[in-house]
Structures are given as C-alpha cells and as structure tokens.
Design brief:
The complex is a heterodimer.
Chain A (H helix, E strand, L loop, with lengths): L1 E5 L7 H11 L4 E5 L2 H5 L3 E4 L5 H10 L3 H11 L4 E4 L1 H4 L4 E2 L5 E2 L6 E5 L11 E6 L1 E2 L14 E6 L1 E5 L5 E7 L1 E9 L2 E4 L7 H12 L2
Parallel strand pairs in A: 1-2, 1-3, 3-4, 4-14, 5-7
Antiparallel strand pairs in A: 5-6, 7-11, 8-10, 9-12, 12-13, 13-14
Chain B lengths: L4 E9 L2 E2 L14 H10 L5 E5 L9 H10 L6 E4 L5 H10 L3 E4 L1 H5 L2 H10 L4 E9 L4 E5 L4 E6 H11 L3 E6 L11 H10 L4 E4 L5 H9 L4 E4 L1 H4 L5 H10 L7
Parallel strand pairs in B: 1-3, 1-11, 3-4, 4-5, 5-6, 6-9, 9-10, 10-11
Antiparallel strand pairs in B: 1-2, 6-7, 7-8
Classes of the chains: A alpha/beta, B alpha/beta.
C-alpha cells in the first residue's frame, strides 16, 4: 500500500513524515511528493498544512494540476484523504485568514478566527485539549472519548452541515476538531504531535 | 478544556546534554535524544532544547540532535539558542523542530520575527525574552543575558506579539538558577498585557513554584533543573498540579 504525504511547500511537514514513517514501519510505503502521477495512484493521501489558510491555498495552486488531481482523488475516486490542521481547513469553501480566500470547497462552510471573547482566551489556541467525540469515526477506532490532542491554531472550521463533525473541543466555544465525510477525514489537532494517541489515529487512517 | 503545559528544557552543548544525570534505564546521560524520550514517555507536554554551543564550527551538531529527536519523540519540540536568521529557522524546522525560539535576533532585528512568522506561521515562532528588574520595571537582555539593551520588557513583549510571535518564553534573569520560584509579578504583567500564550521560565525549585507560575497567568511552565537532576519527574509535577486543581494532561 502507498500512502502519500502531499509536499506542496505548506510549511514544516517533517513531523508529519516522521510520525507516519514511525507508524508505517516497513508494512506501508510512505511517499512524500508533489508528483501528480504518484499522488493519483496512491491508495491514501495526507494533506498537511501549516501557516495561514491563504498561504496554503496559494501553495496548492502554485503546483499546476495539483488541485485537479486532489479533486479527482477525493471526489471522483473517493479514496481516503486526511487533512491535518490547515489541511482540514482547506476543505471549506472559503477562509478569512489574512484575506478572503477560496478553499477546495469539498465541505460547505467557512474558516473564521476563533472568537477570543475580548481577550479572555489567548490565541493561538496552543496546547493539549480534550476530544469530545460526537460521532463514530473510523479514525477514532480504540480512541477514548476525552483523549488529549495537541492543537495550535487561531482559526476554526465552521461547516454548514454539522453531521460531518466527528469531534469538538472546548475553547472559547465548541471548536470543530475533526470531521469525517465519506472518504474525507480531517483533524484540526496534530496527530503527529499528540503522543501515542495521535500515532494510534494515524495508524487507524493507514489501516482504513 | 485547554490544559496547562509542563515543558522540561535541556541545555545542549556540542550535541550533548550539559550536566546530564543518570536516570534509571538511561544508557547515555549525555544523549539529548534519550533524555527527550524519557521526558516524553513521562508525560512532558513539549520538549525544549536550548543550544548553548559556543563555537561556530560545532553549531551544526544541533541539527542532527533535532533530527534524531523528532524521529523518536512525538510531542512538540522547541529549539532555541543561536538562532540568527530566517534561514536558521528554516533549517531547524526542516530537521524536525516544531517551534523555534528566537532571542537576541528578535531584539536586534524584529524583521526576523515578522518574516519568519509570515513564512512559516506564527505557530512555530517563539520569542524568548530574558528580563531583569530595574528601577521602574524590567529590562531585557540579549546574548544569553550578558548584554543590557535598555528596552522595557513589557513594551518589547507587545511589539513581538504585533510582529507575529505565536508565544513568548519569558525568563526572569533575577530568578534563573536560584530555585527560589518564578518572578510571578513579571509573568503576570506580561501575560496580562498580551493575547498570546506566555511560557514562564527561570527559578523553579519546587512543585509549588510551578503552581505559582500557572496562577500568575502563564499558559505553560518551563523548568530545567528540577527535572534534570531527578528531583521530580514530569509525572510527579503533573500529579501535584492536578491536586491543586490546575488542569493538566494526565
């Protein structure tokens, strides 16, 4: 099996690579590439993302044909895809970080700044917070409710259809921290930095 | 709810841990990778490396250390010490650091903070502030606390927030190494004047000091000696904080 981590200059992805390689050992081939053909023929895709919504979308668009390839992979062929942090946020129609930017539009909704309630809550939301699992998700197999995950973000995904939300976390409001829509998965937290629980989630995705 | 973080810090020189002690099961007390693993297995919420390598020819040793640590520890890793430029930050991130802390360079040229936070995202840019009390408040120092700057710490903290820093690592030079507790007034003043998280550093000698640090408004507490010399384990520290009703990840 081939799992491809899409390398589109979205910031620092070494931790994502290290964690997937740790979990995959020798059973699964982890590819890190922006090569469209390799992406197309992978069994699964990981879409990381660090920095701003705008910079990540721009970086995706910089690589000619990448968005089409991802659309085909996720929407037409319906193969499993995991977005992490801004990788998840880009599923939305639109994001408001820096300036209004169009997302991939896979899941209707928008990405807005977390309401810090006039400074009552610090931003970025950095650190370990608990999952409130609200829907069975394949990537949460053997993951306990209220598990701690590592977050670092200032923006949140607000999907129109709440049924795609598989877990939330409490910070200022109920922040969406993971989604599952058919073959499309996303986590706002960083499984690659969430210790053994995070590695288990990565393992669940690899074993889908 | 968001938990308060406990961050053990290791001083690394020429690729080796300075004054490493022999934990049980530890093959090599000077190996930063092994020390980091002990901490992460013990529940550390993040790991921090401070590179204190003095000579330029040995500077690159930190990259190998970061690379190996990130392949073995799956909690966030912050690396600081001697970070001068956007290129230095890029190299550390590529080796597997999750955040980079900037001290002297941030004071000398705040553009480094602006440029790097724009390029890599605020989430990975930590500005380290070394502050010392003076008549009216606190003055910041650079070059590992050797050079006074005449700059007011509170003003500098706000400036760094505007430049795009994601977090501030605030060390009290008056308290550092004394084991007499954080400068809680400094932590309180800075954390209430900015909207980004503050990591308290400098002066921890007991577990109550960690409690005081969090109560002063810091989002995270950093300590070196108490963990390093085995006075307390990270897990003991967390249990103690929890017993004082401070939310921690256990």
């Amino acid at each position: 099996m081939n799992v491809t981590i899409v390398d589109y200059n979205s910031g620092n992805i070494s931790s994502v690579i290290n964690s997937f390689k740790e979990v995959a050992k020798k059973k699964v081939n982890i590819e890190v590439t922006s090569d469209l053909k390799k992406i197309k023929f992978s069994d699964k895709i990981v879409l990381p993302g660090q920095g701003s919504f705008k910079s990540c979308v721009n970086a995706l668009n910089e690589i000619s044909g990448l968005v089409d390839t991802l659309n085909e992979f996720a929407l037409t062929n319906k193969k499993p895809l995991l977005g992490i942090c801004v990788g998840l946020q880009m599923f939305a129609d639109i994001g408001y970080e820096e300036e209004e930017t169009k997302g991939l539009g896979w899941i209707a909704g928008k990405v807005s700044k977390i309401n810090n309630q006039n400074g009552k809550f610090k931003l970025p939301h950095i650190g370990w917070n608990q999952l409130n699992i609200i829907k069975d998700s394949k990537i949460f197999k053997d993951i306990e409710d209220k598990s701690h995950m590592y977050f670092v973000h200032s923006y949140e995904f607000l999907p129109e259809d709440k049924n795609v939300i598989s877990s939330t976390t409490d910070y200022s409001s109920n922040i969406v921290c993971s989604i599952e829509k058919e073959n499309i998965f996303g986590t706002q937290f960083h499984p690659e930095k969430s210790d053994t629980t995070g590695l288990k989630i990565i393992n669940n995705f690899i074993n889908l | 709810m968001l938990k308060n973080r406990i961050i053990p810090c290791l001083d690394v020189k020429n690729g080796r841990v300075v004054k490493g002690i022999n934990f049980v099961d530890l093959k090599d007390a000077g190996d930063p990778v092994e020390q980091a693993k002990i901490y992460s297995n013990g529940g550390a919420d993040e790991i921090c490396f401070l590179d204190i390598t003095a000579s330029n020819e040995n500077r690159d040793t930190i990259y190998g250390v970061v690379d190996q640590t990130s392949k073995n520890c799956f909690v966030p890793l912050t690396v600081g010490g001697g970070v001068r430029s956007v290129e230095d930050i890029n190299k550390l991130l590529n080796c597997g650091a999750d955040k980079v802390s900037i001290n002297t360079a941030a004071v000398q040229n705040s553009k480094v903070v602006e440029d790097s936070s724009r390029k890599f995202g605020s989430q990975c840019i930590v500005v380290a502030i070394d502050a010392k009390r003076n008549d009216g408040g606190w003055e910041i120092f650079t070059h590992g606390g050797r050079n006074p700057t005449g700059i007011n710490a509170l003003e500098f903290a706000s400036k760094m927030e505007k430049c795009g820093a994601g977090e501030l690592l605030v060390t009290s030079m008056d308290k550092d190494g004394t084991q007499s507790g954080y400068d809680t007034e400094l932590m309180q003043k800075i954390s209430s004047s900015v909207n980004i998280p503050v990591i308290a550093s400098g002066g921890v000698g007991t577990l109550d000091h960690l409690v005081d640090g969090i109560k002063s408004g810091a989002s995270a507490v950093l300590a070196a000696s108490i963990f390093h010399y085995g006075t307390y384990s990270v897990n003991q520290a967390k249990q103690y904080l929890a017993s004082k009703d401070i939310p921690v990840r256990i």
